Amino acid sequence: MTITPSHIIQYLYCPRFTFFEYVLAIPQYEEKNYKVIRGRDLHNEKLEQNKQYLRKKIGVKEKHLDQYLTNGLLRGKVDEVLLLEDGTMSPLDYKFAEYKDKIYDTYKTQLYCYAWLIEENFGKKVKKGFIVYTRSKHKLIEVEVTESDLDKIKKCALEIQLIIDNNFFPKATKYKKRCLDCTYKNICIK
Q: Which of 67, 109, 74 is nearest to 89 (CA)?
């Protein structure tokens, strides 16, 4: 089984997500979540709008749209893979969200996953990624990508694989507030 950025985001929220969903095969029913559905629809719509303007703004030499990438451990579909003027590459991701002076960790994690995939598939360094907030007039935000960010993602991917392959029941998150809204709160051992 290959891991997706969603697996890593869920694992970072609580490692037990991985166990319940991928070892016990208990689904989360995320399809009921309006924002998830709307975000997926929006990806298709935005692939055709406002792209040239944004690319010019960040110095794009070459672009690859809607890239499905894998490296044997991780897989993901990147809205845009950009070759920049300095010879590095960057992922660009559209979000059906408003920018509120904060970049959520989940968005950063997704970009780090894409950066890892881009480096392995294109053989180019990734130093930054971009998020477009479609509900804030397509505000473009740059996110730095460091070696430490990539190492953290690689470590998470290996830990997820260990949980799944060994039916390992991990410790829950140390942030107990997260348990209140968790899909698995009724079946999880506290």
A: 67
